[in-house]
Amino acid sequence: MADPTSVRKPGRLGSALVLLILLGSCATLVVLAAWRLGAWLVVSDPLKPARAIVVLNGSMPFRAMEAAKIYGQGWAPEVWVTRNAHPTETGALARLGIKVLEEDFYSVEVLERMGVPPQAIRVLAEPARNTEEEERVIAKELQSVGGERIIIVTSKPHTRRAKAVWHVLVGDTPEAIVRGSTDEPYDASHWWRSTDDAMAVGHEFFGLLNVWSGFPARARR
């Protein structure tokens, strides 16, 4: 006769079922996290008066368009445009004798076309290769001219990383208000449906890991 106080061990079928439930739960959590990732990457800080509005490199003309809108609302007296350090492709074209107009040229054109006066636009002199270098340049310029706040304009999926980079490099003072370009196509709720959105989300996720790890990966020189 079996001892009624003994505990019956689960058989192989029971163990497999428990394992399947655990794996299914983990997979569900991963899917839910991935589904929300596109929206989580987007930061939109409330606007406040600032020393300047800064257009980061990339996604031209949308970032410059957003900066022009914010300027038109009177939040800052100037718009700064960062300069891109010559990428490999530009250097190769230059060696072939082909003139290449940098992105900051077009950003200035967009700003002026949207009503920002030329005297209110300044292209920052020091070039940068990535977000980390751009924000170092911005922080240095802000320290030079004085100001307690800056408005940084970038693409929506890039906003959280831009905010994180500033926090690591500068901290909370001076303050960085980060805003995403509203006219640039980006579907945060269904980012996996578009190759452009999927690439942006993947790039930003691994970029954030790089920020949180202390920038172990550097831009190619």
Could you please describe the fold and organization of this structure?
- This protein is an alpha/beta fold and 221 residues long.
- It has a domain at 53-182 and 194-212: HUPs (Rossmann fold, 3-Layer(aba) Sandwich), CATH 3.40.50.
- The protein has helices at 12-40, 62-72, 88-95, 103-113, 131-145, 159-169, 195-212, and strands at 53-55, 79-84, 121-128, 149-154, 175-180.
- A 5-stranded parallel beta sheet has the order 3-2-1-4-5, with helices on both faces.
- The longest helix has 29 residues, at 12-40.
List keywords for this structure.
Rossmann fold, five-stranded parallel beta sheet, 5 strands, 221 residues, alpha/beta
How many strands?
5
Largest sheet: 5 strands, parallel
CATH superfamily of the domain at 53-182 and 194-212: HUPs
Residue share in β-strands: 5-15%
Give the neighbour order of strands across the main sheet.
3-2-1-4-5
Oligomer category: single chain
Distance between the termini: 78 Å
How many alpha or pi helices?
Answer: 7
Over the alpha carbons, how many angstroms does the gyration radius reach? Answer: 24 Å
> What is the CATH class name of the domain at 53-182 and 194-212?
Alpha Beta
- Global morphology: globular
SSE-based structural type:
alpha/beta
Q: Indicate the percent of residues in helices.
A: 40-55%
Mean pLDDT: 86
N to C succession of SSEs = HEHEHHEHEHEH
- Poorly predicted ranges: none
What CATH architecture label of the domain at 53-182 and 194-212 applies? 3-Layer(aba) Sandwich
Question: Would you give the CATH topology of the domain at 53-182 and 194-212?
Answer: Rossmann fold
